Amino acid sequence: MEKNAQSYKKREKTFKNFLIKSQKKSKQQKAKKQQKICEQLFKQKFDNLLLQIKDTKKLKQNIKLGPPIKYRWAAWKYHLFKQLTQQDVDLYNIIKNAQSKDETQIIKDLNRTFPDQIYFQPKSPELKQEEDFQNESLEKLRRILSSICIIYPNLGYCQGMNFLIGFMLLVNGGNEQEAFLMFKVLAEDPNFMLMGLYENDFPMLKFLEYCVGKSMKKYLKEVWNHILFLEIEYSYWLTKWILTLFLYSIPIQCCARLWDFLISNSIFGICELVVSMLYVLQDKILCLNDQIQFMQFFQSNNFEKLNMSQIVGLCEKFPVKNSCIAKYAKKFILKVEKDNQYALLYSFLCNQKNSKKSIVQ
């Protein structure tokens, strides 16, 4: 799934070394324990290793650098699952077989979720009807989405959720309980607050769109002015990127690296990733002459050709600091002339922390 084999091998070696060095060991037992750890790594038994890691800052740094495929989910999990209680862990098994009020719409979207992925394809072509989800993977997807609707009754099901959960199942090898818990954490964690992307009036979505626009105006003024000249609305491209965390039109093998950055940062990493991608493609974007060309460009394979590790590296060139988020939040609230709980929340959080640091501590 990784394009640059040399870069991938380097990141794999870096992550292995990080796990090995993270273990607390006495000098006398060092060689013996390192050998045992290497054996565990080879067998892909990472859970116990990651549980022993005390340096969460270094774990975040290594997630940002990009864990190899076989380490990725475990690294994400142990970075984000720390606040979960036993009640959270048990919750899914209690509710997973219940049906939600949004069951009909969920079933309609099942076969629209990564239809090119074998993992989600029906057992036979004849079963591609909306009411048929004979693939066990689609049944897992249905159960998770229904469970989300049950624990968040005011939220319900919204298109875009299916892509997030589907992607999580692909990354974690089909573990539906952990995919459910990952969504729950991302929905409630103040660094992500995905609930706001799907609530009535889409408050977090609108705030993120505003922040991306401000970042583009700051770092890519020529591209920003060109988009304004073409009268391109956010709904043509940015809205779908945010609602699906880039999964709508960017190949899933590329999105894994983008998610590494988001998980190690915060939801506002979206601003930096968008600006970085547009920066690399700005010459092509500036050659687009109308809305049709723009839409075709964003639906083509232009993003598949990008080196996503390079994109993540470029994010340092376009930082969105806490002080910026706080400033954007205040201006956004004045602009919409009504309270936006997510803008207010981030304004509060950012004012509590050093402007040079990420929201995530």
Characterization of the model:
The chain is an all-alpha fold and 361 residues long. Among the domains are: 109 residues, putative rabgap domain of human tbc1 domain family member 14 like domains (Helicase, Ruva Protein, domain 3, Orthogonal Bundle); 118 residues, Ypt/Rab-GAP domain of gyp1p, domain 3 (Cyclin A, domain 1). It is built from 21 helices and no strands. It is globular. The protein starts with a helix and ends in a 10-residue tail after the last helix. The C terminus is likely disordered.
- Examine the coordinates and then state which fold CATH places here, giving the name of the CATH topology of one domain: Cyclin A, domain 1
- How would the global form be characterised? globular
CATH architecture call of one domain: Orthogonal Bundle
Run of helices and strands: HHHHHHHHHHHHHHHHHHHHH
In round numbers, the mean pLDDT is 82
Alpha-beta content class: mainly alpha
